[in-house]
Write a structure and sequence with these properties.
Radius of gyration: 21 Å
Number of strands: 0
Oligomer: single chain
Helix content: over 70%
Number of domains: 1
Largest sheet: none
Shape: globular
Amino acid sequence: MRNLRRLAGPLLTVAVLGFLTWRIGTGPFLAGLGGVDSRALLAAAGIGLVTTVCGAWRWTVVARGMGFRLPFPVAVAAYYRALFLNVTLPSGVAGDVHRGISHGREIDDVGGGLRAVAWERGAGQVVQAALAISALLVLPSPVRSSMPLVAVAVVGLALAVTLAGRIRLKDEVSRWSRIRSAVISDLRAGVLRPKAVLAIVLATTVAVLGYALIFLIAARSAGVTSPVSRLLPLALLATLAMVLPSIAGWGPREGVATWVFSAAGLGAARGAAAAVAYGVLVVGAFLPGGLVLLAGWLPERRSWRPALRRRIIFQPKGAADG
């Protein structure tokens, strides 16, 4: 089963890209690659800086609530490195695993470091989905008629999860009870505090708008001249597809973009070209993370690790300020 999950991303990516190549040829992919110029890359890099800072802020807020002190400059550097690894390595999540393990080693709690990253990313994806559904309910798009049903299904799922979390088993020392208690503790401390909720929603909103803006730049680079009001819901759908299993984000994004552009009457080829251009832009936007990764391999890295360990301290849950 583990091997099947590991192969899900590559298999889905190869299947989607192979199908698209068969249906529309290689021309749109080459157009997307060739349409990106230096101005688009510079714009993406500037937007990427803002989205990275927002993600790092969200991470520090969640980690602090869980009792782990994480200096903001260190978080920004680690987040840049994680995003670079995410968009260049096949799994698409290797960077997040890396920053979770690295932070965990600094605080002498690898499990805690990984949990903080998992809750930070999970909370961000929940807010991203909520924002996308809200926007798609009001903006014209090929999926607008289906969004009320999607919204009801999402609310129902959230209620089911909440009720499941409240179920008490007779055997209070059971494994399920321990897992439930740990999850509830993490959620209350790291995610559901009022200050944390506000920070998570604000940071994620800015980040989602930033990624949508990069997609709009990619669409313009690919020759799409439609109004922003028409392209924005398509951008939200395409970027939301990146949460699916893939190879460094490639595959589902191109498939969804091709479909929604075709359904919106803009042409399947333009959707594929825009998605490819977006992939190039996000790699360029997160290249500074490669420099952070390179700096971590230098011998001098050992000189600042003891100092960093003294700055990143562990605090019992509930002791950290909001």
